[in-house]
Amino acid sequence: xxxxxxxxxxxxxxxxxxxxxxxxxxxxxxxxxxxxxxxxxxxxxxxxxxxxxxxxxxxxxxxxxxxxxxxxxxxxxxxxxxxxxxxxxxxxxxxxxxxxxxxxxxxxxxxxxxxxxxxxxxxxxxxxxxxxxxxxxxxxxxxxxxxxxxxxxxxxxxxxxxxxxxxxxxxxxxxxxxxxxxxxxxxxxxxxxxxxxxxxxxxxxxxxxxxxxxxxxxxxxxxxxxxxxxxxxxxxxxxxxxxxxxxxxxxxxxxxxxxxxxxxxxxxxxxxxxxxxxxxxxxxxxxxxxxxxxxxxxxxxxxxxxxxxxxxxxxxxxxxxxxxxxxxxxxxxxxxxxxxxxxxxxxxxxxxxxxxxxxxxxxxxxxxxxxxxxxxxxxxxxxxxxxxxxxxxxxxxxxxxxxxxxxxxxxxxxxxxxxxxxxxxxxxxxxxxxxxxxxxxxxxxxxxxxxxxxxxxxxxxxxxxxxxxxxxxxxxxxxxxxxxxxxxxxxxxxxxxxxxxxxxxxxxxxxxxxxxxxxxxxxxxxxxxxxxxxxxxxxxxxxxxxxxxxxxxxxxxxxxxxxxxxxxxxxxxxxxxxxxxxxxxxxxxxxxxxxxxxxx
Length: 600
Hints:
By secondary structure, the chain is α/β, with parallel strands linked by helices. It has 18 helices and 20 strands. The strands form three sheets. Strands 3-4-5-7-6-8-9-10-11-20 form a ten-stranded mixed beta sheet, sandwiched between helices. Strands 12-13-15-14-16-17-18-19 form an eight-stranded mixed beta sheet, sandwiched between helices. α5 packs antiparallel against α7. The termini are far apart. The N terminus is likely disordered.
């Protein structure tokens, strides 16, 4: 299966611009539309047939109820499951769970009990390969494709069961699958429209390709048992039930991919293939640990499901890491999933820091542009140094709400808790049209607004107890195109003490001549430049990193004091999507860099 780069829709954040999507290949495999049509056909069933639910026993867990039951499978036999229900009449959200290959329905029981306390009804299904005889089916050899189809059909029947419950709101249904449950869940996302949100944990989305290219022992065994024609037929049957087939047709259903950084069973290529195949809206996060995943992943599952299914808050230590903000005005543009996440480093007390909100720093195009100032607790000691944040590319309809999004407010809060005043600026959008050539044509205007914000902050210094002679800028993603401009001048102001750029976009089609950072670099007097800290995410888009590497090389050649921090396994927006200690360490190093250069 070959890959090709497809431009993301312009409303999608920059981190998705260079997604690689699976396409039809020259190896004779059917194209995606053909596979999707076949997937829909083989997962059809009689939804009007009786569910024939039989209760095995009821258990009370405090005021929660765990019902062990079976229901009739459209493929024959019975499906063992738990139904976990909270007290009351509802209406409650509903979630279906499918365990990993080494487990049973018990894997998610504790998680379902926790969700029940927040108003969720859960159905936990035993996969066919762990059921008692005569209901058991195999995941081995040539039986695998048919067993995966059985799992999907029985999970769809489980959705029927949830939707039929009087206490369940059939408009608020979700799915959580782990490993083989994620493989099946990916395919299910393309055929089950009643499920609004899918969590796919450590799944392989292109297992048919893995059998051919990764699991060579499995391939050898099959080739030894089958004729060439039968092996080809088996591979094709597997291709139909690949997770990439379903997630490529999942919209508008939301997808959340979770992966353990040390998982020995899932390769980087498999992770990339599954995520890249998926439609928007989607989010991918990476965690410490292996195939079993961590408590942080469990916390995020619950909080992400809450944003899509709408149930009560799930208890967690510290601020919610994923939440849907209440925006102060209407918008017809969906909020991207990454914008609901918070940085992975949280500081005790950061939620209580005071904020000066909605200060107008300039007026342009008939509207006011505003900023917020997050103040540390140490302002009573005197004026505090300032960090000014430059956000990246967003849909123009969402830019007015940048100061309300957890991805940015969380960034401002953890930095302010280090003793700096942090200015979160709404800079606007550089896009002057939907065509890709117009996405960044307005970059010079954002550079001017960045200058206006810095000027405003210095004027407000006395009023807000700020040290106007000690400012640094911090640019993220496409913010590199406009946030670094004040530091890339022949004579940068003396009060601009440093510049930080995380995974910066430093070149893009359509940026007007003279506005690129690499062009500004040519004018600087290197040793007179403020110190730079650049963070490079190794798993970022290759094109973005190529421009970044060239910038670093030229800056050092000119004598610019530049520190490069590398995250070889880091992704774009690492502080949001890589919940690992290396991300937190780079964040701490960033704070130390500010301390070094902002201390009077």
